[in-house]
What does this fold into?
Amino acid sequence: MQHSIRRYGKNVKLSGLSFGAEAAFHLILGLFSIACVVPFIFVIIISFSAESSLRTVGFSFMPNLWSVESYQYVFRWGDQLWRSYFNSFFITAAGTVISVLICILYSYSLFRRDFKLRKFFTFLSFITMMFGGGLVPTYMVCKNILGLNDNYAAMIVPLLVSPFLFIVMRTFFSSTVPEALIESAAIDGSGEYRTLFQIIVPISKPGIATVALLNALAYWNEWFIAMLYIRSAKYIPLQYLLMKMQNQVDFLAKNSALIGAEAANIVASTPKENLRMALVVFIVAPIACAYPFFQRYIVSGLTIGSVKG
Amino acid sequence: MKRGLALTLALALLLVSGLGAATFAVAEDDFSQEVTIKWMLEGSNVTDDTAVIEAVNAYLKEKINAKLQVIWGTWGDFDQNVVNSINGGDDIDIYFTCSWTSNEYSAYANKGAYVRLDDPENNLLEQYAPGLFDVLPAVLADAAAVEGADGVGVYGIPGYKEVAQEYTWDINTPLLEELGYTVDDIGSYYDLGPILQKAKELKGADFYPLNIEGGVLVRIALNADVVDSNLVLVYPFDPEHPSQSGTEIKSLLELPEFAEFAKKTREYYLAGYINPVMATADAASSARTDAQLTGQYLIGTQVYSPGYDAQASQERGFQVTFKPTHKPIISTTSARGAMMAISTSSKNPERALAFLNLLNTDPTLFTLIAYGVEGVHYNLTDDGKVEFTDKRADYQPWRNGLGNITQLPLTVDDDPQIWEKFAEFNDAEGVPILGFALNQEPIQNEMAALANISKEYLDGLCVGVVDPDVVLPEAIEKLKANGIDKVVAEANAQVQAFLDAKGE
Amino acid sequence: MTAPQQVSRPSAGISSAQIKKLIALTSMALPGAIWLILLRYLPMFGIVIAFKDYRIYTKAPSLINNILHSKWVGFKNFTFLFTTTDSLRMIRNTVGFNLLWIVLIMAFAVFLAILLAELPRKRIAKTYQTMMFFPYFLSWVVVSYFVFAFLSPDKGLITVAQKNAGLMPTNWYNDPRPWPFILTIANLWKNTGYSSILYLATITGIDATQYEASRIDGANRWQQVRYVTLPHLRPMIMILLIMNLGKIINADFGLFYSVPMNSGRLFSVTQVIDTYVYRALINTGNVGMSTAAGLFQNVVGFVFLMGSNAIVRKVDPENSLF
It folds into this structure.
C-alpha cells in the first residue's frame, strides 16, 4: 500500500503525461470501456422494444415504439421467476460462504511451509486440475453416493472446491502474511485455528473478497449442474431457466419434424427473442449492481497479493 | 504421502463397491408390497404436479398398490439427462423412448437398457399386461419388435398417437385467393415459382412467401423419410403407393433429386422468396412462428395431423389450409414416435408393466395424467367436454408422448369428429421396411464424421443461402472421403437382413 | 484439546507440539481433501470406459457392473477423432485460435494495464477498470444474445443498417470469412479486462523507488516502461502462459457453439474438437467415445503444461509454475 501511494503521489505527477498523450490514453481506454458495456445496454433497450418495432426496424438503439410487453410476459410466469430468482440468490450465498471457508482452510495449510503434508495436499489438488473421471461416473457418484439429487445441496456441493482458487488464495497468503507473525502467535500459545481466524483472516480480507467474488460468479452463472441434478421446477435457478429455453429452441430446431403433430404448437409456444433478452437482463442486472462493490476489494486484493516482500 | 494414497484408494474402493450393489429383479409379483414407480418423460411443461400425483397415487394404490413419481423431462434436457441416467444405472423404472431421441429405442434395447417384455422365459406381457396390445393397432405392435440384448422381441410399449406421417403445405388461403389462385393450384414444389413471384410482387421486398423449415422442405420435395436424425441417410418412398416403395436407403446429398431440389431452392432464395434467417436454425423458429401468426407468408411446411387445420386457423385468425404432398405413410420413424420402455435397472418391472397396461387401457388414469385433475386443471362442460382452467399452465405434459391418447375425452377446441378422422388417418399404408432401424454401431466412426458434415452443408443447401453448384460437389467429395459408401452399403445390408428375417 | 503435556522424545524427532500442529493443519485441509477425493478422484475409475465397449449389464445394471462386464476394445474409442477428414481442421482451429488469443490477450491486456497505471486521475482509471471487468462475468450464452442483437439476419443492428444504406446485407451466420475476427473480438472483449487487472495489480505492486532510480538515471517514460514495468510483469505473464498452454487443446465450447448459433456454414472456422465431439455424439450418447475424447484432451493438456513448465524452468527458473 505504501508503495502504491507513493507511486501515485506527487512523484508521478511531476513527470506527468503530456496533454496529448493523456488524451490519447483516455481515448483508447474510454472506447474500450464503453465497448464493454454497450452490448448490455443494447440488450436492455431490445427488451423494452415493442414487437411491432422489432418487426419494422429490427434490433435498434432507437426503437420506434417502447413497450414492457416482454417483461409482462416474464412476470406472467410469476411464481417460477421469483422462485428461480430466490434459488439463484440462495445457492450463490450459501455456496460462496462454504466454498470460501473451505478455500481459506485448505490454502492456509498449503501456505504453511512447515506443514509436513503440504506437498501431498498440493499434489492432490493439482492433479484434479488436469484429469477428471468424465460425466457419467461423476454424475453417478454425486447422485447415488452423495445423494445430490433434486435438492439445494446438489447445486452447491459440486462447485465447492476450485483448485485454481486454492493457488490464488495461497499466493495471497504467502505475499501478505509474514511468517514471523505466525511464529510469534505460536509462541504466544495461540492454536492454529485461532491464529488463522483471529490474525490471518482479518489481514487477508482483500484476498478473501477476490475468491468470494469468483466463487459467487461461478454459482450465479451455473446451469449445467442444475440440468444434471435438478428435476423439479421448484429448485431451478435463473440461469438454468434461460438455458432451458435455449435448449428447447435448439432441440426443436433440429427435431420438430420428428415429434409429430403437436410440434408446431410447441414451437409456437417457445419464447421469442425479446423475451429471452428480458430474461438476460434479469440475469445480468444483479451482477451489474453487485460487482462494483466487490471490485473495490478485488483490485486492492490483487494489488496486495502481488506486492513482494 | 504413500500412506495417504493407499488410504485414498481404500476409501475409494469401499465406496465403489457400495456403488456396485447388485439389484436382482424378483421373478413374481403378487402386488402385496407397495412400490414407487419412477417415470421419466419427454417434453413436459410442468411446474406443479402435486394435485395430480396425489390423485394418481390414490387411484393406483387401489388398482396396483403402487405410487408414481414422475421426472418431467423437457425438450432438449431430456436428451442429455436420459443418457446419463441409463448409462449410470439410475433407479428409473420407465423411460420415454422413441425413434428420434438420444435414447433411441432400437439402439438402447440393443445396449441392454430395456427389459424384454415378451421374453419366453417369464413372458411379462402375458402376465401383467394381457389386453394391452389388443387396444393398439397391430402395426404398432409389429413395429415395436426389435433386436435387443435378449434377442428379437418387444422392449417397449408403443404410444398410440398418430401412427402415420404426412408432410404437408401450410397455405395462407386468403392471400392465395387474393392472388387469384386456389388451393388446387398448389402442387409440386418445382412449380411454385410463378405463384411465389406474384405474391412477392404484391406484398413487397420484406415479404417472404415461403415460410419453410429446410429439413422438412427437403423431405417434401424428395418424398424421403428419415433414417438417422442428421439426415445423412434417407429412405425415399412412393408418394402415391407407400406400400410399394423400394427397399433401398440412400445418401441424401448424393441423390440426383437432391441436386435438382437444391438448385430450385437456390433460385427461390435468390428471388427473395425465402427469409435468410431460415438458414440459422436456432434463430429461425421464432421468425417462422412470427410469420405464421401474422399471416406474413404464403406457403409453409408442416407435419400434418388430423384436426390441425381447424386449430391453426383459429390460432392465426385466418383460414389455413393444409395440402398434403403425399399419401400418409407408416414408417419406423412414425410408428416408434413415442414409446415407454421398462429399464433393466427397475426393481419392479412387473409393477411398471402393470402400470403401463393401466395407463393405456384405463381412461380415468390417462385423462388424469394427461389433462390433470377435474375441477382444478379443467372443468367438464354440460356436454362432457374438457375446458381447461388457468391452472393448466402449471401442468402441461406432452400429451402425445404419454400413451394411448384415444382414451381422452374431447376438449372444447377439438373437432367433434377428431377420433374418427384420427382412425382414418392411421389406417395408412406401411412402407416395406417398416420396423427397420439402422444399427450405427458397426459404422460409428463414419457416422460421427458424417453427422458433422451433414450439419455443415445441409442447413444452407435446404434453404438456398449457398450456391449448390459450388457447395454440393464439395459436400459430396467430403462424404466420399469419410466413408459414405461404406455406410450406405452397411445400411442396405442391414435392410436386407431385416427383410430376410421378416420373410421367414 | 486438553491433552496432557508430553515431554518430547528426541529419538522420535517429533515433538507433541509438532504433532498437534500436524493434526490441526491436516484437519484444515481435510474438508477440501474429502471433497476432492469424493468428487474428483472417486469418479476417475470411469476413465477405463474410454477403453471399453460400454454396454449395460442387464442382469444387474449399475455403473460398476456395466463397466466390469463390458469388453475391452483398446484404443478403438479414440479413432473417431482422427479418422475424419476434418481432424486437421478442428485441431488447427482449436490450437490456432488458442495460440493467437493467448498472445493477443496478453499483449492487449498488458498494454491497457500500462495505460491505466500511467493515468494520473485515479478515479477515472477506476471507472475504466470497472467497465472493462464487466464482460468477464457474463456467460457465453448471454454473450451470444449480445452478438445476435448486432448480427441477426433479419433484425440485427448491422444488417438493418446495411439494408437502410441500400447495401446487400451480409448474412453473418452463413459467411465464414468474418468469423475469425468476430470470434477474436468476442473473446478479447470478454477476457481482456480480467487479465489487464491481473497485470495492473502487479504494476501497482512495483516498488516506486525503482522508478525514481531509473528517472535519476535519465530514463524517460517509455524507457521506464521498457526497463522497469515489463520485467516486473514477467512472472505473471509466465504463470498465465503455462496455465493457458495446459488448456491449448480445449476449446471454449460456448464461444464456438453458442456465439455462432451452431451454424453449419461456419464450421470451416468454428469447428473445434469440443464441438465436433458434441455434434458427433449428441444423437447416440456414446459414453465410451465421449470419455475417450475427454481423456485425449486431458493427456495432451498435461503434456503441454509439463513441457512448457519445463522449458520455462530451464530458461527462467524463478518463474516456472512448480
Observations:
- The longest strand of chain B covers residues 35-41.
- Residues 197 and 314 of chain B are 28 Å apart (CA to CA).
- Chain B touches chain C through 64 residues (CB under 8 Å).
